[in-house]
Amino acid sequence: MTQRPGPRALSDEALSGLLARQQFGTLATNKRSGHPHLTTMVHSWDPEARIVRFSTTADRVKTKHLRRDPRAALHVPGGDVWSFAVAEGEAEVSGSTTEPGDAVGRELLGMVPEEGAAWSSGQPGPACPPLAAPGPQSTPLRHSRTSR
Length: 148
What we know:
Number of strands: 6
Oligomer: single chain
Shape: globular
Strand order of the largest sheet: 1-2-3-6-5-4
Distance between the termini: 25 Å
Number of helices: 3
């Protein structure tokens, strides 16, 4: 019988590093029924402020869920199937960006990873849509707890 590795606690520094290294995660919001709604998201992690940021548009289901119930969690995979981090907290849905250079737009541009700089030029990468969708919003998830 193959024995699986047991759970191991990661330090806060290791969990923060995992959130910073990974570009994609699975965001969980709460449906009105109480069941989870899961969606893959590109995110950015600010370790000093302990905030996970992601971009979405006002018409998305996750935005409606977060306005009704701001509790959310972001699952980020590690280097193997047994490694992961989960950031939990309450999301703050910003207003939509309405003109070039406004505060929300600047926050969105700050989320673009260096290797995805082509996004800001309007050239989406093969796996990622541009951040210049009509009315994008920045949604910070104020991190209150990280688990593994």
